[in-house]
Write a structure and sequence with these properties.
This protein is an all-alpha fold. The protein is 52% helix and 2% strand. It is globular, with a radius of gyration of 18 Å. The chain starts with a helix and ends in a 7-residue tail after the last helix.
Length: 199
């Protein structure tokens, strides 16, 4: 079986990444310095967009690292490259093209000049929650392309799942029990201080 097919069967299910050994291995292979990372599948411009989006979705806080500090953009890029079929890759590329067209209506402008406020406005306008209407999809229900909302929602869920699956978050933020052997019953607040288990 091809590696891509195996990873796809194990990884991307119903629109988000499932933490399987193969996917965790892919995530652990992401070790580039965030400032010098060069995308493999995405273009440099698309990589800049992805990096800015993941850090708005999961920014650095007092107690937690930003998504870029845990190489989430690198993982998403590798996932697109190594797991998605050609047709899915084309959809991702067209989705990024629509995002870039919104962020910089003049193609001659540099993506580096797009401000954080523009990314936030993009997310505010196009991110959809359950039961909200995706007007792009309603206008063209048979389209094979991803709408702006669909690509942004995919990026959001991949960002969250990859972030939670990293070793840093799994061992140092969530409750880590490498060899679970006991069954605990009780209030999560009492058992773990309100933290979820990482495994």
């Amino acid at each position: 079986m091809k590696r891509r097919e195996a990873l796809k069967n194990l990884g991307l299910a119903t629109g988000f990444v499932v933490a399987t050994p193969s996917i965790i291995s892919l995530l652990q292979s992401c070790t580039s310095d965030a400032k010098t990372w060069t995308p493999i599948f995405l273009s440099i411009e698309e990589g800049v967009v992805l990096t800015n989006l993941v850090d708005i979705i999961l920014p650095k806080s007092e107690n937690l690292p930003a998504a870029t500090e845990l190489n989430v953009p690198e993982f998403i890029d590798k996932y697109f490259n190594e797991v998605l079929e050609d047709g899915q890759q084309s959809k991702v590329k067209s989705g990024f093209a629509s995002i870039i067209a919104i962020l910089k209506p003049n193609p001659e402008d540099s993506i580096d000049k797009v401000k954080t406020e523009n990314y936030i406005a993009l997310l505010d306008e196009h991110m959809r929650v359950k039961d909200e209407i995706d007007e792009e999809r309603e206008a063209n229900p048979d389209s094979e392309s991803m709408t702006t909302s669909e690509i942004l929602n995919n990026i959001k869920w991949m960002t969250i799942r990859a972030y939670k699956t990293t070793q840093e978050i799994g061992e140092n933020v969530l409750v880590y029990d490498p060899v679970p052997g006991a069954y605990y019953c009780g209030d999560l607040q009492e058992l773990t201080g309100g933290k979820s288990y990482s495994l």
